[in-house]
Amino acid sequence: MSANIHVTLSALAEPKRLQIVELLREGPLTVGEIAEKLELLQPQTSKHLGVLNKAGLVEAEAQANKRIYKLCQQPFKDLDGWLASFGHIWEQRYDRLDEYLRKLQGKD
Amino acid sequence: MSANIHVTLSALAEPKRLQIVELLREGPLTVGEIAEKLELLQPQTSKHLGVLNKAGLVEAEAQANKRIYKLCQQPFKDLDGWLASFGHIWEQRYDRLDEYLRKLQGKD
DNA sequence: TTAAAATATTCCTTTACAAGAATATTCGTT
DNA sequence: AACGAATATTCTTGTAAAGGAATATTTTAA
């Protein structure tokens, strides 16, 4: 069982965290490197990483007194799967209101 | 130009709004119908729809004194495109830290 | 033009959460 | 053991936003 969509979306909805995730696309990084590249203070970087970690978007690998963070793929796959549930809609005449209006008339 | 990912994610990060969006997958609905199906009060339903509308996720069609809301597809396509930028990563040996560790050593 | 239904808006209160600053922890090195 | 570097945690404060209640707006019908 994977984290639900809401957890993933909430974690990603914060600008700095979104930046962190986008940065980590390029490869694993330590806290210090992330903080430096995004011009963040270390404590908030750790805190954001903590949120991302709790949401299952990121995991850490200890290396000496450093911690190397990298993305987890499952939540992104889940999100992709969720979006796929919309995909088949667009091809249909979803945006044509004819059918709905007829249904609406029927109720009156 | 489409709304950026952050706007979309922020709008979807709220549980009720996520519910609304998922409900609208099945087809356009009026405010009253949404409120009824999700057991929400009308004012908060309108407010959530307002946020979704401002974020470009939803649009309304006036029909008498009702308003029929439906999904907009562009933001979802954009989000899908954003996720695609992760896709090629998973196939690579992204999760193998070897390379990174070597890089890290080189810096010391 | 008044009334009623559907929806939108405003105001208020409360809560969640991010930033900032300070401190604690952990690990390797000497 | 002690120190310094890297990271985590705690505490406080400020702010954005969600919920509730009341009211305003819009539209149709009588």
Features:
elongated; alpha+beta; homodimer; 6 helices; Arc Repressor Mutant, subunit A; 108 residues; DNA-binding; 3-stranded antiparallel beta sheet
**Which regions of chain A are unreliable across 5 or more consecutive residues at pLDDT < 50?**
none
Secondary structure: helix percent of chain A:
55-70%
Briefly note the CATH topology name of chain A.
Answer: Arc Repressor Mutant, subunit A
Largest sheet of chain A: 3 strands, antiparallel
Beta strand count of chain A: 3
Summarize the structure.
The model of chain A has no long low-confidence stretch (mean pLDDT 88). By secondary structure, chain A is α+β, with helices and mostly antiparallel strands.
Task: Describe this structure as you would to a colleague.
The structure is a homodimer of 108-residue chains. The first copy, chain A, has 108 residues and is of the alpha+beta class. Chain A has a single domain (5-107), classed as Winged helix-like DNA-binding domain superfamily/Winged helix DNA-binding domain (Arc Repressor Mutant, subunit A), CATH 1.10.10. The first copy, chain A, has 6 helices and 3 strands; from the N terminus they run ααβααββαα. Chain A has helices at residues 5-12, 15-24, 31-38, 42-54, 74-91, 98-107; strands at 29-30, 58-63, 66-71. A 3-stranded antiparallel beta sheet of chain A has the order 1-3-2. The radius of gyration of chain A is 20 Å and the shape is elongated. The mean pLDDT of chain A is 88. The interface between A and B is large, with 36 and 36 residues. Chain B binds a DNA duplex (30 and 30 nucleotides) through residues 14, 16, 30-32, 41-51, 62, 64-67. Chains A, B: Pfam families: HTH_5. Chains A, B: Residues 1-93 form the HTH arsR-type domain. Chains A, B: Keywords: DNA-binding, Transcription, Transcription regulation.
